[in-house]
Specification:
alpha+beta; 3 helices
Length: 89
């Protein structure tokens, strides 16, 4: 089993995104650093637009993830509703 991860600049907007990730990925682990927040998950991590919208209280386009994105690892599958990182081919 290998972890996938995503790291964002640490700010108020990404706090909502991280909260949404944790809500949808119960095995995810957060590492807070002064300027960055990193979320690790075993094998797969799903970021759901609907969950982010619930946390932010506004409409959210998953392309907005890229504004505060620092780095990630895993294969990316992206739709209008989900952003998935995994090691599945």
């Amino acid at each position: 089993m290998s972890n996938v991860f995503i790291a964002f600049q640490r700010n108020e907007e990404t706090r909502c995104i991280v909260d949404a990730i944790l809500a949808d990925n119960p095995n995810a682990v957060v590492s807070m650093m002064p300027a960055m927040v990193k979320v690790d998950a075993p094998n797969t991590m799903v970021i759901r637009r609907e969950t982010v919208e619930e946390q932010m209280g506004r409409p959210f386009n998953l392309q907005e993830l890229h504004v505060n994105l620092i780095t990630l690892t895993g294969h990316i599958e992206e739709t209008d509703d989900d952003f998935t990182l995994s090691w599945k081919h």
